[in-house]
Amino acid sequence: MKILLWPHPTLKEVSQPYPTDDLAKALLQRRVTEMFGVMKAAGGVGLSAVQVGDLSRFFILDAGNGPEVLVNPHTLITTGDRVPMMEGCLSTPGQFEIVWRHPEVTISYLDGNMVPQTTTATGLRAQAIQHELEHLDGHIFVEHLKAADRGRVLGAMMKMKKSGK
Ligand SMILES: [Zn+2]
Asked: Is the pLDDT score of 165 beyond 80?
């Protein structure tokens, strides 16, 4: 399992709802176990399935509440004016930029056992959830940046690709 690096074309694809039958549930467990390993090794707090080439609507988080699996998530409420937060992405390793995020978000989703859940997140967890939800719709945080900043990140990524990392 490898993390796709921006601007890989798959990162622009919209992920599809994940099935909720028993087989899908069993496959999910295996998939997320591997994803947690990859995410931990890369030092991340969130990873969407699309980032490892799987166009399914789920992501994993470890952003203060322990390991979490969020399947077919929907935003219910975003609270507060957006505030600037330093942000990175495992698809743009080593690149950190300011992105404006809501300080609080409430979402509904299915957990790793396909049980419906609702959660209100703040701080880093809220930021990570907003970041990962964008991945599921084929977007990435660099799209929020001014052209010059986006260009700088792209340049760094091209350099990394060239050096074969
Ligand atoms: Zn990301």
From this structure: no
Q: For strand 67-79 and strand 83-87, is the pairing parallel, antiparallel, or unpaired?
A: unpaired
Residue 126 has pLDDT above 90, yes or no: yes
Per residue in 3-18, pLDDT tens?
999 999 999 999 999 9
Distance 88 CA to ligand 1 centre (A): 7
Instruction: Tell me if residue 17 falls in helix, strand or coil.
Output: coil
One-letter amino acid of 99: V
Question: Cis bond leading into 7, ω under 30°?
Answer: yes
For tokens 């509904």, what's the residue?
A: 108
Q: What is the dihedral of CA 30, 62, 112, 138, to 10 degrees?
A: -80
Q: How far is the CA of 37 from the centre of ligand 1 (A)?
A: 16
CB-side neighbour CA atoms (13 Å) of 45: 15
Q: At 22, list the tokens.
A: 């028993």
Q: What is the pTM of this model?
A: 0.96
The residues near 71 (Cβ < 8 Å, ≥ 6 apart) are 18, 20, 28, 57, 58, 109, 110, 111, 112, 114
User: Could you confirm whether 34 is annotated as catalytic?
Assistant: no
Q: DSSP state, 19?
A: P
Rounded to whole angstroms, how far apart are CA atoms 46 and 59?
A: 7
